[in-house]
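Backbone-to-sequence.
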């Protein structure tokens, strides 16, 4: 599905591993995040069977597009193609960005994890990334051993890079405003959104993140 062109800005909700094995719960939580204003959902499932992952991803794509949001697939170009996702997010050890671009086409959204390294972001942009992600900025349950990124890095990146910047890693509604003020266009959250038990609580959590972007305008 082709969505209207608009900036990549807002809450970037990344599904937690605990959700992926329970498709009804996954879809209910994703809908809660979308109702709360999530601009993008990333489907991150490292363990599921291929058929189950494809079924979930297709359902998420429909759900995201119904809400005017985008679905990004973590580290699986073939799945992104098969399910009708809007793009793929790749880490340093994943498939090359240029290869993903060739497979997905010019309209796909390509994201790249850059850790705390600005030089990695420059290389990702040269290879075709549409946004770059820096992190972790705060203690993170998802990736507790990831190297530390700083607000100063965001300031430097904002001055040097001319594409959307995502901040990830322990970001909450209480500390995310400073990252947006320093130059982040997207705030990514896993447990901060999907750690909530019920869809209504997920929606409330997503809304708290989304509100940060209105106060920073």
């Amino acid at each position: 599905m082709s969505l209207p062109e608009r900036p990549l800005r807002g809450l970037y909700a990344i599904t937690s591993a605990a959700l992926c094995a329970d498709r009804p719960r996954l879809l209910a939580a994703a809908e809660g995040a979308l109702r709360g204003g999530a601009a993008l959902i990333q489907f991150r499932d490292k363990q599921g069977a291929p058929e189950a992952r494809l079924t979930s991803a297709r359902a998420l794509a429909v759900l995201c597009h119904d809400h005017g949001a985008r679905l990004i697939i973590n580290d699986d170009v073939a799945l992104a193609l098969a399910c009708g996702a809007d793009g793929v997010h790749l880490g340093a050890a994943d498939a090359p960005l240029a290869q993903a671009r060739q497979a997905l086409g010019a309209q796909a959204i390509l994201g790249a994890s850059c850790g705390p390294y600005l030089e990695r972001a420059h290389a990702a942009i040269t290879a075709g990334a549409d946004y770059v992600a820096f992190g972790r900025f705060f203690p993170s349950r998802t990736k507790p051993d990831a190297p530390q990124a700083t607000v100063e890095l965001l300031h430097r990146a904002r001055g040097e890079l001319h594409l959307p910047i995502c901040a990830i890693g322990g970001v909450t509604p209480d500390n995310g405003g400073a990252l947006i003020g320093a130059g982040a266009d997207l705030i990514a959250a896993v447990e901060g959104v999907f750690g909530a038990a019920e869809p209504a609580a997920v929606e409330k959590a997503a809304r708290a993140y989304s509100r940060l972007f209105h106060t920073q305008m």
